[in-house]
Every structure is written in C-alpha cells, then in structure tokens.
Amino acid sequence: MPAVDKLLLEEALQDSPQTRSLLSVFEEDAGTLTDYTNQLLQAMQRVYGAQNEMCLATQQLSKQLLAYEKQNFALGKGDEEVISTLHYFSKVVDELNVLHTELAKQLADTMVLPIIHFREKDLTEVSTLKDLFGLASNEHDLSMAKYSRLPKKKENEKVKTEVGKEVAAARRKQHLSSLQYYCALNALQYRKRVAMMEPMIGFAQGQINFFKKGAEMFSKHMDSFLSSVADMVER
Amino acid sequence: MPAVDKLLLEEALQDSPQTRSLLSVFEEDAGTLTDYTNQLLQAMQRVYGAQNEMCLATQQLSKQLLAYEKQNFALGKGDEEVISTLHYFSKVVDELNVLHTELAKQLADTMVLPIIHFREKDLTEVSTLKDLFGLASNEHDLSMAKYSRLPKKKENEKVKTEVGKEVAAARRKQHLSSLQYYCALNALQYRKRVAMMEPMIGFAQGQINFFKKGAEMFSKHMDSFLSSVADMVER
After folding, report:
1. From the record, what ranges are coiled-coil (chains A, B) (predicted)?
2. ipTM
C-alpha cells in the first residue's frame, strides 16, 4: 500500500512511468470502491424495500380491521364489542403506519439517496474522466507516432512544423484531461470516507427516531387497553 | 338480524322449516366469517412477510458493512477509522436484527398461528359437518321417498317394515349429524369474537415489546456515538 495521499498535479505533464503506476493504484482503488458501493447500495435498497412493504402491509391490515363492520354478518349479536375493539386496533395500526412511513422516507432521504448520489456523481465522474483521459492519451500517442515517422529531409520542414503543432495540441489536451482525472481521483479518496459513513448515520438516526416515537406511542394507553381486551377475550 | 344466541339442539330432531330457516342464517354467517377470516389472514401474513423480509435485509446489510474490511482497497490510508465505524454500525444492525427476528417470531406465534388455527380447526370443522349433514339429509330424503312409493297392499308388510327400519336409521343418522353441525355452528359464534381479537392482541403486544427494547437499545450509547461520527464526517 503506497504511503501517498493523492496524485500530484505537477506530475501530470511529464506523465512518467512512476506517475502512471501510481495512477493505476488509484484506478484500482476506484474500481474496488465502485463494486463495493454497488453492493452496499443493493443491501440498503433491500432494507428500504422491506420498510416500504411494511408501510403497505400495515395499511392493508388497518383497512381489513375496519372492514369487519361492513361484512353484514347475518348474526350480529355481540358484534358491537368486536367492532369497537377492531376499530381501536385499526387506529393503532394507523399510528404505527405513520411511524413506518416516516422511517421509510427518512431511509430514502438520508440513507439511499446519499449513496446513489455518490455513485451517480463521484463514481460516474471518475469513470467518465477516465474515458476522456484514455481518448486524449491515444490521440497524443498517434500524433507522436506520426511525427516520428516523418522523413528527416529539409524540404519537409513545413510539414514537420505542422505535425509539431498537432503534437503540442494533443499534449495540451491530454494534460488538461489528466489534470481533471487526477483531481476527480483525489476527490474520490476524500469523499470515500464520508460516502461510506453518511448513509449509516442516516439509518441510525432514522431508527432512533422511530423507536423513540414508537415507545412513546405504545406506552401511553396501550397496556391498560390490552389487558381489558385480554379480559374480554377470556370472559 | 334474529335475536337468537344459538341453534337449539332439541329442535334438531323435528327439523321444522323454522329451524331450517334459522340454520340458513347461521350458515350465511359462517360463510361471511370464512371469507373475512381469509382476507384478514392474508393481511396479517403480509405484515408477517414484511417483518421477515426486514430480518433478512438487516442481516444482509450487516454483512455488507463488515465486508468493507475485506475489499483489499489499493489505497487504505485512513481506512482504519472507516472500518471501525462500519464495524460498530454492523453491530447496531445486528442488534436491530435480533429485535426484528424476535418480533417476526412473536407475530408468527401470536398473530398468524391463532388465526390459521381458527380457520383450520373451527371453520373447516363447520364446513365438513355441513357436508356430512347434507349427505345424511339426502339419504333420509331418499329413504322417505322409497317408503312413500311402496304399494299399500297387505302382502308388502314385510318390505314395508324393512324400509321403515331404513327410514328410522337414516333419521337417526341425520339427527346425529345435525346435532354435531348445530354444536359446531353454535361454538363458532362463541369462538368468533375471540378469534377476531386474539391475533391483534398478539400483534400489539409484539409491537410494545419491540419498541420498548428498541428504545432501550438505541438510547444507551447511540446518541453520543452518532454525534462523534457526524463530527468525523464533517472534519
């Protein structure tokens, strides 16, 4: 593991084998980070998906509890008690659904979105700049080859000057794209740490919030209500 | 809505049109209850499924957080901090997974199983006894028809006696099956109330338990840890 922080921009113009070798280390790191980020995103989306499904499932359950009243049972004796109890449970499930919905939204905003943003912005930028740098390097190599194949005769001076200009232009282009590419790779190293931890901070804060509100909600009247319903059932 | 509690067993033998009419009311009620129970079970199974998926999703996320260390990043500078933070988060997700798993088990045992049991035992019993009662009634009708078609001549006395025995046997059989069927229908009315409320008591108790443990778990060290990680990220 090389003890370097970043690719030095002043090395970009010379483009030495040492610099190229260091560049390949940064590229490998970016590749590993891209793979890992995709897997992490997938795992986080699965958690988000489960949370979302819980919202839908509690919504359906609440509706189903209310639907008891509308069944038009042929024998309705004693049903008032069941209806009012199921109404109460439906409200409980609704309140729970509010908490689940809030958590789902929070997971989307503070866990899934930041990592999608990191992938779409930072990682995609690196990959785009890599392609541009590759193209510019190729162009530069081609113009160099063209220049070196020129005959040494004096009468070719004019052609030589022109190809020389081409080489210089290609080098400027390559230099510029390497500067941008190096910057993006350096920035990625800087962003990496935050990008890995930020979504989990969002996850944990969402859970803290969820459990706090849930504990408050259920501690209120639930215990006494539940024991009265349990009595009713055992009667 | 008839103001009756139950089918009177002493009416079963006479099998009057009034009793048949009351029976059909009980049957209609049982049919409505069967439909509603199936829908409620479906809604409850969806909640259980979402809870189960949350267990699997948190398990995968925890593993993925630990996997960061094993990525062999080409550039590992500053990674110790990321690794130890992700390890901590992985532990948090593991603890959360324990709570989710416990809730899933509780929902299975105290919400889904009781209503499955109600369907498989009580509702299926009624439906089976209905079929048996139908068969016995048919047999009785057939033997009655056979008896009524017998010629009135004196020399048929022996055949008459035999068919008469058949009718008596069929009536006994029908009487017995109607007694069982009436009992099951009466029991269903009694069980209905409990069967509807019991799963939701299980649901609510599971949630109370879940939020209580979750709030305890997250209130402990999480807040100070999170702010230190947030500081780290903003550094």
Report:
1. none
2. 0.89
Type of residue found at B219: S
Query: Rounded to whole angstroms, how far apart are CA atoms B124 and B128?
Result: 6
Above 70 in pLDDT, residue A4?
no
- pTM of this prediction? 0.89
Question: In terms of CA atoms, which chain B residue is nearest residue A45?
Answer: B57
How distant is the Cα of B157 from the closest Cα of chain A, in angstroms?
48
Sign of the Cα torsion B195, B196, B201, B203 reads positive
pLDDT of residue B224 exceeding 60, the answer is: yes
Which residues does A126 contact at the CB level (< 8 Å), separation at least 6? A30, A181, A184, A185, A188
Cβ-Cβ contacts under 8 Å, A97 against chain B: none
Burial of A166 (0-12, 13-18, 19+ CB in 10 A): middle
Buried b (16+ CB within 10 A) or exposed e, A52-70: bbbbbbbbbbbebbbebbe
Output the CA angle B45-B46-B48, nearest 5 degrees: 60
User: Which residue of A26, A60, A205 is in closest CB contact with B43?
Assistant: A60
> Is B1's CB within 8 Å of A85's CB?
no
Which is more confidently placed, B183 or B150?
A: B183
Domain ranges of chain A: 26-234
Which CATH number, 3.40.50.1370, 2.70.98.70, 3.40.50.300, 1.20.1270.60, labels domain B26-234? 1.20.1270.60
Residue B49 CB-half CA count within 13 A: 14
Q: Identify which of A26, A211, A230 has the shortest CB distance to residue B214.
A: A211
Q: Are B210 and A207 within 8 A, CB to CB?
A: no
State the average pLDDT for chain A. 91
Among chain B residues, CA nearest to A29: B74
Distance from CA of B214 to the nearest CA of A (A): 6
Q: Could you tell me how many CB contacts below 8 A there are between chain A and chain B?
A: 216
Interface contact flag, A89 B200, Cβ < 8 Å: yes
Residues B187-206 have pLDDT tens digits of 999 899 899 999 999 999 99
User: In chain B, which residue's Cα lies nearest the Cα of A74?
Assistant: B29
% chain A with pLDDT above 70: 97
d(CA A128, CA A125) in angstroms, rounded, equals 5
Rounded Cα–Cα distance for residues B133 and B139 (Å): 10
Instruction: Give yes or no for a contact between B198 and A235, defined as CB atoms under 8 angstroms apart.
Output: no
Q: What is the pLDDT of residue A235?
A: 63
